[in-house]
């Protein structure tokens, strides 16, 4: 019996590592072969977190490759395009034209960013094998780049509230979330050029944003591109303060404090900034919903919808209202609805869609973040159950991009890298505490 119990985790670990090996290019890991053939920013951070248990040098390389494409203004781009790959992804490198911009330093990248999880990921990678990390001077080399990345957010994206605003839904990582509906409704539906939809060759149209939504996404992308990624627009068409994006920024500031202490540098600045971000998140807490909500930085209005983004702040040590947020995660809007994994949207909402991108289904990375918050606040059994379910659904269904939160049926593309990375972390640290 004991041998059988040990065999299952070993098989899951082998399957996850095999997938990540297939998606490895030699310098980075693609999110999924076919649909996502380049390097994505926060995907690589999650991949590094999972790989650190088995190949810390490759985990370090994953982050180093991404940071090598950092712009001179400090931004870490959402996508780093691989020039050796047929550029069928939309929008492609030619759409953005970054190679013509001095700030991009000749690299083909998106002009947008993604959630700042990188400093946290780098710290976790370091702690997995400090000896190898110190020998390679990993933290010493990435620390200046991570500082510049955070400084970019503070300097260019804070519109006076102490929080960073995203200028496109793609920057949040939760592209099609209901949090963005009202702000997107103000935008034109038709971009200058009709956007291609290669995503529909890899996933059912019922699981992806509509053509109308994509039209607005592309119009907004064109607007930002035509300004060459300049964040100085006093009246941008879209600027939203996302609770998950900013909570992960605070978590990464805490990780930078730990990194500074490891390097013998002052840590107080990072500790202070982490505390300031958490304090700035306070007005986004909705006591009725029990979660943090988004705020339109242009109108000041709160978007009172309960999404998984509003649960992520509970994963940050020292977060305010963590107890209430954990209760909401366990309540009828999320896990208390009978969900197997954490739904991306309020289970009681009339417009819940169990198959549509970020409007109901569960993602492995966000469930992993919420499971960490539950464990930190004493809900070890629930966190363990989520971990077991993630492993079972991932391995049994070829590592899907996301799943139905209730019956676990797979959606999106298959062979998804961060799904495999989360499995590796769950298997390696089932009861661990990932605080900086």
From TrEMBL:
Q: Which InterPro entries match?
A: 6-hairpin_glycosidase_sf (IPR008928), 6hp_glycosidase-like_sf (IPR012341), Glycoside_hydrolase_63 (IPR004888), MGH1-like_GH (IPR054491)
- Per the record, the coiled-coil ranges are none
Map out region (Disordered) in residue numbers.
Answer: 186-208
- Name of one Pfam family that matches: MGH1-like_GH
A molecular function annotated in GO for this UniProt entry is: hydrolase activity, acting on glycosyl bonds
Q: Which UniProt keywords apply?
A: Glycosidase, Hydrolase
Record carries keyword Kinase: no
Question: Which Gene3D superfamilies does this entry report, sorted A to Z?
Answer: 1.50.10.10
Domain Mannosylglycerate hydrolase MGH1-like glycoside hydrolase, chain residue ranges per copy: 36-419
Biased composition of type Basic and acidic residues is found at 199-208
The answer to keyword Transport applying to this record is no
Against PANTHER family, the record matches this protein to: MANNOSYL-OLIGOSACCHARIDE GLUCOSIDASE
Tell me its family: Belongs to the glycosyl hydrolase 63 family.
Which named protein is this? Trehalase family glycosidase
Originating organism: Georgenia daeguensis
